[in-house]
Design brief:
Oligomer: single chain
Helix content: 40-55%
Largest sheet: 6 strands, parallel
Mean pLDDT: 93
Low-confidence stretches: none
Number of strands: 18
Strand order of the largest sheet: 8-11-12-13-14-15
Number of domains: 2
CATH architecture of the largest domain: Alpha-Beta Barrel
Shape: globular
Distance between the termini: 44 Å
Structural class: alpha/beta
Number of helices: 21
């Protein structure tokens, strides 16, 4: 089997999903190849001649090798202007290299002028004319050598930005190998299949769609049986670990599927009914120990929606011997100053925290389970421990109006010294979430694959009003503007830890 991670996603670390799937197949005697077409495709585009005549494009083309080397050099991240220029120039090359195809490729996104990943007809059109895809010259040369000795191809489709390229590659494979078995799974596919009205529009192209973890379904398709409860360490060994756009290997690791809290009213995980499936703490610790010894990463990225308190405690007691970061809930554990210091000693360089709002009423309505007094204590503890905070805020929920949004502004200003980075999001209501029946009125994005609904805000706090507030009031406060400027362009939280400074772990 050939497992493919398609364009386009941030190419700063190897894809964890296909590494898990490959390890499972190989452990059961199934031959398996991995292709990170996302990384390879971006590198291919970056090395194409730049034909645009404007000064910026010519400069970017001349400096491509230097800028790629800069993203792989830790010193660049201590010079923010140098870092931003390298990222901007590389993004420019991708953009001008793809315009003739009607697409705009970037380091973090893929947009098309006429085709939408939210319309199944457009995905089928992308498959019907794969030669129109900007990555076609790459994958039409790369795939033939890999398809010669495989009986099935699996795609890991996680993001909307991957959808059009995924179907272009499927269309190419089907034209060259009409009988090749095509399997598609991943986060985006799982979301599609969890829609109550789901009926696959892709039966002419895709033989199997997989919802949720793919290990057992792939083994079943391969005629192999998995042992109940068996655990297998992810296998990154055949991926190009030195080629990613980071200053050394960032090792991604998932200790759980789903979210252990799973009570937030706005969360797609809850709306889709995704179950929480944790890996045992002992397996996580042994996996991290083995993977760190094998690959010597400069950073471990824990991918969980929220690292469980038990795992945080285990990491504090048994450090992974590499700096690490991930998402954590604001809870009583982080309200303990000494526990935060123990996390820092274990190598925790940054925590992403979903505060969402600085208004207690809004938080209560969301089901966040967060008390603002506790949040204040946690932010101060993390600051004092030397752990950077990437704080996520969500505006425009049904329980928020301008008044509550201004409470959030005041909360952030009061704690600006403890918040290193900000992610500011405008609320999208899940199409089949618990509040959609009350407030939803039509699809937010036109297309039969849309996952969100437009909604009538009970306080008339519509998206335009929210965006006006964010741009003209929230971001203009001097304390907040300084935080917003910290955010790494395009790579955001994936590179943020490097801007914080990777230091040696205290013994």
């Amino acid at each position: 089997m050939l497992l493919i991670f398609p364009p386009l996603a941030k190419a700063c670390e190897p894809p964890a999903g296909v590494a898990r799937l490959a390890a499972s197949l190989r452990a059961h005697g199934q031959q398996c190849h991995i292709l990170d077409a996302n990384l390879e495709g971006q590198l291919w585009l970056l090395h194409q001649p730049v034909t645009a005549s404007d000064t910026w494009s010519r400069r970017a083309g001349k400096g491509r090798s230097r800028n790629l080397a800069a993203l792989r050099d830790i010193a660049t991240y201590q010079a923010p202007d140098r870092y931003r220029r390298a990222v901007s120039d590389l993004n420019r090359i991708l953009a001008v290299s793809s315009t003739a195809s009607g697409a705009t490729v970037g380091l973090a996104d893929y947009q098309h002028t006429t085709l939408s990943p939210l319309r199944s007809a457009d995905l089928l059109a992308a498959a019907h004319e794969p030669e129109q895809n900007p990555f076609f010259p790459y994958f039409s040369l790369r795939l033939p050598e890999l398809l010669a000795d495989v009986g099935a191809v699996g795609f890991s489709l996680n993001y909307l930005s991957q959808a059009l390229c995924t179907f272009a590659m499927i269309g190419y494979i089907k034209k060259c190998h009409p009988n090749m078995r095509i399997v598609v799974g991943g986060g985006l596919v799982t979301s599609w299949m969890h829609r109550p009205d789901w009926r696959s529009p892709f039966e002419s192209l895709v033989d199997d769609l997989i919802s949720g973890p793919g290990e057992e379904p792939l083994l079943a398709l391969s005629g192999k049986a998995d042992k109940p409860g068996s655990h297998i360490t992810p296998d990154y060994s055949t991926l190009p670990l030195k080629d990613y756009f980071s200053p050394g290997l960032v090792l991604p690791y998932s200790a759980a599927d789903g979210c252990y809290w799973n009570r937030c009213s706005f969360c797609p995980e809850r709306a889709e009914g995704n179950k929480y499936r944790p890996v045992s703490t002992s397996h996580v610790l042994s996996d991290l120990k083995l993977l760190v010894e094998q690959s010597r990463p400069v950073l471990v990225h824990l991918l969980d929606n929220a690292i469980s308190p038990s795992l945080l405690c285990a990491l504090a007691e048994h450090p992974p011997i590499a700096p690490w970061y991930g998402f954590a809930r604001i809870d009583e554990h982080l309200a303990d100053p000494e526990f935060c210091h123990s996390l820092k000693r274990s190598g925790c360089i940054m925590l992403k925290v979903g505060l969402e709002s600085g208004d207690q009423g809004v938080l209560d309505r969301m089901g966040k389970g967060i008390n603002l007094g506790l949040a204040s204590q946690v932010l101060n503890n993390l600051k004092n421990a030397g752990i950077s905070v990437y704080c996520y805020l969500l505006f425009g929920t049904p329980g928020e109006t301008l008044t509550e949004a201004r409470h959030t502004l005041k909360f952030v200003v009061r704690h600006h010294q403890a918040i290193t980075f900000l992610n500011l999001a405008v609320f999208n209501m899940p199409l089949h979430g618990e509040e959609a029946a009350e407030y939803g009125d039509k699809l937010f994005y036109e297309g039969d694959l849309s996952l969100y609904t437009a909604f009538r805000h009970p306080g008339e706090w519509d998206r335009r009003s929210v965006r006006n507030f964010l741009e003209n009031e929230f971001k203009r406060h001097p304390a907040i503007a300084a935080i917003v400027r910290n955010d790494p362009p395009h790579f955001s939280s994936n590179h943020a830890a490097f801007l914080c400074g990777i230091q040696q772990i205290s013994p």
